[in-house]
Amino acid sequence: MKAVVYEKPYDVKVADVEDPVIQHPNDVIVRITSSAICGSDLHMYEGRTAAESGIVFGHENLGVIEETGPGVVSLKVGDRVVMPFNVACGFCKNCLAGKTGFCLTVNPGFAGGAYGYVAMGPYKGGQAEHLRVPFADFNCLKLPPGEQFETDFVLLADIFPTGYHGCELAEVSPGESVTVYGAGPVGLMAAYSALLRGAAKVFVVDRVPERLAKAEQIGAVPIDFTAGDPAEQIRDMTGGEGTDKGVDAVGYQAQGHESGHEEPAVVLNALVETVRPTGKLGIPGLYVPSDPGGPDEHAKRGQLLVSIGKMFEKGQRMGTGQTNVKSYNRSCAT
Ligand code: ZN
Ligand code: ZN
Questions:
Q1: Number of domains the chain is built from
Q2: Residues 6 and 43 in one domain
Q3: So what's the pLDDT on residue 258?
Q4: Residue-level pLDDT at 182
Q5: What is the CATH number of the domain that holds 248?
Q6: Residue 83 Cα, ligand 2 centroid: separation in angstroms?
Q7: With 0-12 CB in 10 A as exposed, 13-18 as middle and 19+ as buried, what is 226?
Q8: Residue 121 is part of a domain; what is its CATH number?
Q9: Interatomic CA distance for residues 73 and 53, integer angstroms
């Protein structure tokens, strides 16, 4: 079959690879109908991870089941399914606690597995004609048959649950104010999720006019960081206090609003400045332990200069980590 294969930084090609086969009784083979390109794919593409050649990209996958292993009980050939980007077993300590992004079974020696991603196990990605889904009864979310809402449903693999996860990490509650840094797809879904959770006011920070217009369209207040320090702008609009909660939907390839070049900790530090004392920060934006293209020796090892002193002074709390998609995708679908 054809698949999108990573060779080296800035070199990705469509190549012939082996068709996936059933390897375990609870596997299924899915014929991919939609597979999204993620900002996380770009981290690998741009040489900003420890990715090695041969990875088949694609962790946001939707399709139709073509073959089921003999142990599959809840799915059949022809079912239309979307898969979390995480590969998870469903029975380990972390999966049972709903922390399926940190499964202890699927990627031995590591907490967490995913399709087509560096360090996330041997699972080939779905930017391909077919995909093997392990522990399929657990990992497949059945969708209505047909082709309707294809581009909406594919957001259930990562983007919508990840935006929601940012709000969950920050414990966004009814009546609160929230700042979301980044108005890409995850940031917009985080802002939307904050509103779904009853936030009274949501600010979204970006510099791309079309993204900011979209944020405004879903009911958020757009903040253009090229017009001045975003934390200052938001504190001015909240009586000097800052918002109750904050979400980082940017990650380590963030650009400074003053310098105009990459500053990996700029969003983390902006959140510390933007969120009020005792507020909470949700960090689904990606940070990696190994970044060959990092701007300095520390950044190359995933060590960033974070304003921990200011954070301590303000008594803030921070939640981090990849999304436990299984905890949210069913309710995001309805
Ligand atoms: Zn993704
Ligand atoms: Zn597990």
A1: 2
A2: yes
A3: 80
A4: 98
A5: 3.40.50.720
A6: 15
A7: exposed
A8: 3.90.180.10
A9: 36
According to the model, what pLDDT value does residue 333 have? 77
164 shares a domain with 152: no
Ligand 1: centre distance to CA 114 (Å): 10
Q: Is 229 found in the same domain as 121?
A: no
Please report the pLDDT score of residue 102 as a whole number: 98
Phi, psi dihedrals of residue 246, rounded to the nearest 5°: -145, 150
Ligand lying nearest the CA atom of residue 84? 1
pLDDT for the residue numbered 251? 95
As a whole number of Å, the end-to-end CA separation of the chain is 34
Please give the residue range of the domain that contains residue 194: 160-330
Residues of the chain predicted below pLDDT 70: none
Residues with CB under 5 A from ligand 2 (ion): 88-89, 92, 95, 103, 105
Q: From the CA of 61, how far away is ligand 1's center (Å)?
A: 10
Residue 331 exposure: Cα atoms within 13 Å on the Cβ side: 10
Q: Which listed ligand is nearest to 186 at the C-alpha?
A: 1
Report the pLDDT value the prediction gives residue 332, as an integer from 0 to 100. Answer: 80
pLDDT for the residue 260? 80
Burial of 111 (0-12, 13-18, 19+ CB in 10 A): middle
pLDDT for the residue numbered 257:
77
**Of 120, 119, 109, residue with least CA distance to 50:** 119
Residues 6+ apart with CB under 8 A from 246: 170, 178, 179, 180, 181, 271, 274, 275, 279, 280, 281, 282
Burial track 138-175 (b if 16+ CB lie within 10 A, e otherwise): bbbbebeeeeeeeeebbbbbbbbbbbbbbbbbbebeee
Q: Of the candidates 59, 68, 9, which has an alpha carbon nearest to the alpha carbon of residue 34?
A: 59
Same domain? For 164 and 128 the reply is: no
